[in-house]
Amino acid sequence: MEVSMLCTRVSLLILILSLCSPYKFIQSPMDFGPLNLLPTTTTASSDFGRILFHAPAAVLKPQSSRDISLLLSFLSGSSLSKVTVAARGAGHSIHGQAQALDGIVVEMCSLPAEIEFYKGGEISYADVSGGVMWIDLLEQSLKLGLAPRSWTDYLYLTVGGTLSNAGISGQTFKHGPQISNVLQLEVVTDFLLLCFTGRGEIVTCSPSKDADLFNAVLGGLGQFGIITRARILLQEAPQKVRWVRAFYDDFNTFTKDQELLVSMPDLVDYVEGFIVLNEQSLHSSSIAFPANVDFNPDFGTKKSPNIYYCMEFAVHDYQHKNTDVEQIVEVISRQMSHMVSQLYTVEVSYFDFLNRVRMEEMSLRSIGLWEVHHPWLNMFVPKAGINDFRDLLMDNVSPDSFEGLILIYPLLRDKWDTNTSVVLPDSGSTERVMYVVGILRSANPEGGCSHHCLQELLRRHRRIADTAGVHLGAKQYLAHHPTPSGWHQHFGWRWERFAERKTRFDPLRILGPGQGIFPRRDDSAAYGS
Ligand code: FAD
In angstroms, what is the span from residue 216 Cα to ligand 1's centroid? Predict the structure, then answer.
């Protein structure tokens, strides 16, 4: 064994011993050979939700996949260790999913931000480091006239972070979630070996090579390995986008039109929608939409509120193709049943369209409303239950005081690969459509929503999630379940496969402790089930 390797092993053994010790962890930066573990920071113990703050014992800022591999290999090789590891992307989780209480947080953004492009006749793709943010991939790919096909609404999220969930937005009905647009992954994982110890191995996997690992990691909530590189499918980027918003005063008409639009993928490139509960929700979601919206709804009274809905869709404009985009919008809107004269269209650059939430962020930051609590709840709802879900939602929100946004838009099941780890509602019937509903709430302590109020909002969201789960077959997206049994229920019949994948790729349950799915346990018990 090389001397440097021996030093690293000794250093890591010391690390493991110190992490297992009952005494509080050393406070100064620790140089463990090539692995420079740093003391914890506020960033490593917080996230966008601002609800949970679990401090790790140390932080790793990896310079390469090998650094992560070394860490996992030593932790899994030690029968003493009970240390857990969480990859942290941009930390935009809500409930501490990227945190590791007393464990090690791996800051993925420290990996060199490499992006390499391949532009072919039939297929183009980008090889991207797992810690790269989607905004950086967009900026680089646009220089070549290319862009990923499937997005999230907000782009300051990392590739590894969204691929660990699904990555959805208004393009999902057409191209599937981001996890349906990945050709290959490089993953550092902890394959179970015959001698019953794991090994931090760097594996390149795809649908045709190590497909089990590939499928497990996509939507795998960080449980099976750390994504250090992803090959993302690209398409030609349009220069401009025609962006349309139409208002409704009836929920059924709103959803019927949304379903009409997702049935026209040859014409439409993006479909979303949101509930207009009050003036604030009308105004806040209009910041990035540069049209003169002349909509003055009557919101009724507190006792008898009037609720409105806004559907938005977009059509890409490839200017060299000379397509008449306005004509396409005209063809589509003629088939819609929105409120009379309540349809607005604007033309924006493709970049500004995709980066629209950044504008909302800047506006919220400027008034101190970005770094507040975010008790968010996202749910996939079967089409058959969407009306009941709306009613359940309305029973649990007060339209006059709701702060934030409620998104509702349809997705198509056949754009999702059921071999991945993602959990969707059971189809039950042959329904192709399901909905995603995002209750994206802000709770500002300085605006009167401090601890008690936040706990009450979280309780209400749990009530919605539980009721919709039991009665409508809905499933949480970006799920949070406080107990392992809640996770069992969440996965339902898929639990066995998920647990088997855990036993195979992370037998010691080192990875992803912040999700709370698999509590860390003694090595002796690790191979029992
Ligand atoms: P983190 O929060 O850092 O991590 C999330 C999980 O992934 C953790 O379990 C972590 O351990 C794991 N993880 C992180 N990196 C890796 C890696 N390289 N390998 C393995 N596991 C890893 N989501 C959507 O789908 N659509 C949207 O439109 C959307 N809009 C959003 C808008 C805002 C303003 C915010 C704050 C979030 C939004 N999200 C959306 C949610 C977002 O996709 C998830 O929170 C995602 O996890 C954030 O990515 P991140 O890089 O911050 O991941």
Answer: 17
